[in-house]
Amino acid sequence: MAGKEWSDADFGGLPSVLVAAHELKTPLALIRQLALLLDDDLTSSADKTQIQQRIIQTSEQALQLTTDLANSANLTPSLFPLEPVNPLAICQQIATETKLNATLYGRKISWPKSRRNSQLILANRTLLGRILANF
């Protein structure tokens, strides 16, 4: 079918397919890297256990992403209801969830000790969390 021109209607809208491919590339690349580490003889048994946990967590996030992408194709206002959300609390939650991955790469996530930020924004908590986590 050389020379065929694609329209937005093809594959449910080509831009959606491109977005899905782009969004799934990151978790799939991470899963591949972690799987390669499992095959490395220099990786300790304890590290292999952490890597296996990270693979499970990343794959679960990627599966949730596919659900979100499918839902966004049928976007309706009630799909992502807005509510008052503390963005700092979401960032702290993401830091907790990614702590294991940071440890695998010799990194540490810490928060400055300052007054508690209780400023709220209007957002969808789940969607904002996934955007910030890049999942």
Automatic annotation (TrEMBL):
Pfam family, one: HisKA
GO MF, any single term: phosphorelay sensor kinase activity
UniProt-listed CDD domains: HisKA
InterPro entries: HisK_dim/P_dom, HisK_dim/P_sf
Residues in Signal transduction histidine kinase dimerisation/phosphoacceptor domain copies: 20-69
Protein name per its UniProtKB record: Signal transduction histidine kinase dimerisation/phosphoacceptor domain-containing protein
